[in-house]
Amino acid sequence: MKALVISGGGSKGAFAGGVAEYLINEKKREYDMYLGSSTGSLLIPNLALSNIEKMHDIYTNVNQQNIFSLSPFKVRYKEGEEFIQIHHLNVLLQLIKGKRTFGESKRLRKLIKKSFSEAEFEELKASEKDVIVTVTNLTLNKVEYKSIKDFNYEEFCEWIWISCNYVPFMSLVKKDDFEYADGGFSCVVPIREAILRGATEIDAIILDTEAFTYRKAIGKNPFSLMVDLFDGIMDQVEKKDIALGKLSAKHNNVVLNLYHTPIKLTDNSLVFSKKKMTKWWRQGYEYAKHKLDGDSEIDYEAVINSKPPLRD
Q1: How would you class 209 by CB atoms within 10 Å of its CB: exposed for 0-12, middle for 13-18, buried for 19 or more?
Q2: Rounded to two decimals, what is the model's pTM?
Q3: 3-state class of 257 per DSSP?
Q4: Among residues 268, 272, 303, which one has the least CA distance to residue 111?
Q5: Using the 8-state DSSP alphabet, how is residue 70 labeled?
């Protein structure tokens, strides 16, 4: 039984899309299970349906307005460079309203339903494939996995949305008397869950570098410092998930193929830039191509900075 696993990573999901495109379209990989956390949860339903072009269009055209109904960030450009700032007015409005998050992501829920129709849901649910999204139950402080087989269309779309809600910057959701948030808070890369569900071969796309090879610039105000702090915590969760996944794969004789980003893509994956995400999708495709079919001694730094040919 083969599984495709995609980690969390916000806007970096565009890179995962490029890798998945090469695996599915060029290498003809077919999977029985698709597991995702956060942005991985957004990708997997349409990947399971082989709707590669649809996901490419979404991930290379999305912007802040498509995700946030109220964004805690604002992006300004100076001489072609991108600068991220706190949207003080929006954050203040949330505080005045007594909200517990700095932003709201209700538009993302609409985007999910727009990109994954009820007819597609029924087609996928009736198939032999399983699609599983990861969420964090904050009330019980535990990870939960939600299979498409167990829910109707409205419920499953909401679980996908919940899996992507990176609080306190996005919406906190109360469901069934429990409060839920981003799946990455408890499991960034659900490799071990795929093995527990019977996977014997896994392709896992991990939206971070294999080793910490850069000097991190720490935020200069409390808000950006919080972003950096959360990023560091998620990195540690991810390392734990990968270590447990490798150990479980070895113990159960599971073939585990890991696809890391060769270099760090961004310092804030909650900023959605069409230009950057278009580039990352192409680079993900090119990275997978060179990893699977290129030279063993390939310079991945050169690959990630290359300019792949335009899509047809």
Answers
A1: middle
A2: 0.90
A3: strand
A4: 272
A5: B
Instruction: Fill in the DSSP letter of residue 117.
Output: -
Angle ∠(108,113,115) on CA atoms, nearest 5: 90
The C-alpha R_g of the chain, in whole angstroms, comes to: 19
Name residue 193's amino acid: E
Q: Where are the alpha helices (DSSP H) in 127-273?
A: 153-164, 191-196, 222-251
**H-state helical runs in the chain:** 13-21, 39-48, 52-59, 64-67, 88-96, 106-115, 118-126, 153-164, 191-196, 222-251, 274-293, 300-304
| φ/ψ (deg, to 5) at 72 | -85, -5
Convert 222-251 to b/e letters by CB count within 10 Å (16 or more is b).
ebbeebeebbeebeebbeebbeebbebbee
Cβ atoms 189, 238 nearer than 8 A: yes
Token pair 């072009």 is at which residue?
Answer: 53
Pairing between strand 173-175 and 142-147?
A: unpaired
pLDDT, averaged in runs of 10, over the chain (312 residues): 96 97 96 97 97 95 92 76 79 92 95 96 97 98 97 98 95 95 95 98 95 63 75 87 96 97 87 91 95 66 50 44
Residues 284, 14 contacting (CB under 8 angstroms): yes
Look at residues 264, 256, 258 and name the one whose alpha carbon lies nearest to residue 208: 264
DSSP calls for 143-160: EEEEEGGGS-HHHHHHHH
